Amino acid sequence: MISLTSEVRTPYHSWPAGRKLLGLCLFTVAVFYLEQSVAALLVMGAVACAYLVAGRRFARQGLRLIRPVFWVSLIIMTYHVLTRDVEAGLLVCMRLATAVAAANLVTLTTALEDMLDVMERLMARLFIGAKIRRRIALSVTLVIRFIPELTRKGGTLIEAWRARSTKKFSWKLLLPFALLALDDAEQVAEALKARGGVE
Question: Rounded distance, CA 1 to CA 48, Å?
Fold first, then answer.
């Protein structure tokens, strides 16, 4: 679980991690400045094509990771339907899906170690001490890695609830979700300890 890098080799795997992360930051900012639905749809289509270039198997992995965005989009669209601003809701949902898909693309094609190196080099330029750099870089990278994994597990919990009950999922799912998160955190902690911890 400590790495979500796709086992399917793609042209993107060989791209430098620093450039991918910088490109992701600039791309995400640009996406949320899109004001026209047509432009947002074209950009979303371009991201989808980027997945398809790497093959159907890789595209399916990306599709699985973006599924939880559907539920968030459903909430957003419900609000905008009630406020009678459907077009704005569609624009927000397309921006969100595009940004998450792009982030997943970088996550799937960038090794954890490469992300750590980029973070450390960035902080070295800010004259932050080596020990603090290592800890901050590890913390940030683990957050990046945990978010899609926890999102996927949350979606699985909801699907399991629906398969066993006709009622809507409720706050009662928070406890098993928290236990899953703690279990993952414990596994990562044990893995780090086995490798000598963080200096």
Answer: 25
Taking residue 37's Cβ as centre, other Cβ atoms within 10 Å add up to 13
Give dist(CA 77, CA 75) in Å, integer.
Answer: 6
**Tokens at 199, concatenated:** 């200096």
Domain count of the fold of the chain: 2
Q: What is the 3-state secondary structure (H, E, C) of 92-119?
A: HHHHHHHHHHHHHHHHHHCCHHHHHHHH
Domain boundary (51, 74, 109) is at 109
Angle separating helix axes 130-164 and 112-124, nearest 10 degrees:
140
Neighbour count for residue 59 (Cβ, 10 Å): 17
Domain span at 80:
1-6+15-109
What pTM value is reported for the model?
Answer: 0.68
- What contacts 64, CB < 8 A, 6 or more positions away? 152
- CA proximity to 139, closest of 123, 152, 126, 158: 123
pLDDT digits (tens, 9 = 90+) for 143-178: 766 776 777 777 777 777 777 777 766 667 777 778
CA distance 92 to 110: 27
Same-domain pairing of 185 and 116: yes
Residue 21 has pLDDT above 50, yes or no: yes
Tens digits of per-residue pLDDT, 106-142? Answer: 989 988 778 878 877 877 777 677 777 777 777 776 7
